[in-house]
Amino acid sequence: MVLQLFKTLHRTRQQVFKNDARALEAARIKINEEFKCNKTETSPKKIEELIKIGSDVELILRTSVIQGIHTDHNTLKLVPRKDLLIENVPYCDAPTQKQ
């Protein structure tokens, strides 16, 4: 389970920070540091907690992070991944009654 999370985090890192060598390297170092720092952990409860944190981080990276590219002095071009783009569902002020 731990190795699977490690691999998943690295795959997500490669998708989220695609074409950004600096961000890819920083994320790789951070993931490796966190796993190395906790590799001697033996408490099942603590391991479960760390796995939950890692899974949450992976979910946030995958669903919330958008790349920005500097195009001008004060301009960023956002580059959302296709899996982040969702259908825009119109908002309805008057909820319908359940029947």
From TrEMBL:
Gene Ontology MF terms: protein folding chaperone
Record GO biological process: mitochondrial respiratory chain complex III assembly
Keywords: Chaperone, Mitochondrion
Statement: the UniProt record of this protein carries the keyword Chaperone: yes
UniProt xrefs under Pfam families: Complex1_LYR
GO cellular component, one term: mitochondrial matrix
Residue intervals of the Complex 1 LYR protein domain: 2-55
Subcellular location: Mitochondrion matrix
Main location: mitochondrion
Similarity field: Belongs to the complex I LYR family.
UniProt function note: Assembly factor required for Rieske Fe-S protein UQCRFS1 incorporation into the cytochrome b-c1 (CIII) complex. Functions as a chaperone, binding to this subunit within the mitochondrial matrix and stabilizing it prior to its translocation and insertion into the late CIII dimeric intermediate within the mitochondrial inner membrane.
Assembly and oligomerization: Interacts with UQCRFS1.
PANTHER family reported for this sequence: COMPLEX III ASSEMBLY FACTOR LYRM7
Protein name: Complex III assembly factor LYRM7
Organism expressing this protein natively: Capra hircus
